[in-house]
Design a protein that fits this description.
single chain, alpha/beta, five-stranded parallel β-sheet, two-stranded antiparallel ribbon
Length: about 200
């Protein structure tokens, strides 16, 4: 059982990192191996070079490692702040370079560019945990929650991940220790329940 955990926040003391640490501890306690990546700490290059124009291979060893682990993962977790109703640029670049053709999705044989893609990912469940200084209700009611559509439909849905759970916590600037403790507890409970369910389904 393999979980892939991606954190995209420039500060190593961020709440995104705290959530990722909690999720990782819960996953290991339930028997998962966890591949953890801090994109900023790794210096992941979000810029897709011209040589990757076909988006099927890269000469960047880090990109190839991420692609291999994405393919192998049974569970995928992403942690990032909400910036202008979008993920940080480093995470968008990670999607561009890692969720690539013949890794995350493919086209049926004989289909043209207008064909309907087929999802290739092994994972059938993913979690996205966001932090925000925009009240959750305003993000949903005023802006239409574009992060929800992006992750559930445009990214994971297209690539074959059937179940996507997303939570946004905030406003972070106005939160206290009690709020953060409650949110961390929810992250652990959600991930733990999914991990136990997966283990039970996978038992011989």
């Amino acid at each position: 059982m393999l979980a892939l955990s991606i954190v995209a926040h420039p500060s190593p003391t961020s709440f995104s990192h705290a959530m990722a640490a909690q999720a990782g501890a819960v996953l290991r306690a339930t028997g998962f191996a966890v591949r953890e990546h801090d994109l900023y700490a790794e210096g992941f290059n979000p810029v897709q070079p011209v040589v990757e124009a076909l988006n099927t291979a890269s000469d960047d060893e880090l990109v190839e490692r991420h692609c291999a682990e994405l393919q192998q993962a049974d569970l995928i977790l992403v942690f990032h702040p909400n910036w202008w109703s979008q993920p940080p640029a480093i995470l968008k670049g990670w999607i561009d370079r890692v969720f690539r053709l013949n890794t995350a999705y493919a086209y049926p044989e004989g289909a043209g560019p207008d064909g309907v893609p087929i999802g290739l990912l092994k994972a059938r469940e993913a979690f996205v945990f966001n932090t925000s200084n925009t009240p959750v209700e305003r993000e949903r009611d005023v802006f239409g929650d574009p992060l929800e559509r992006m992750w559930k439909t445009s990214v994971f849905g297209l690539c074959g991940v059937a179940t996507v759970t997303r939570r946004m916590y905030g406003p972070m600037a106005a939160s206290g220790a009690e709020d953060r403790e409650r949110w961390i507890g929810e992250v652990g409970a959600l991930v733990g329940a999914a991990a136990r369910s997966f283990r039970e389904r996978s038992a011989p």
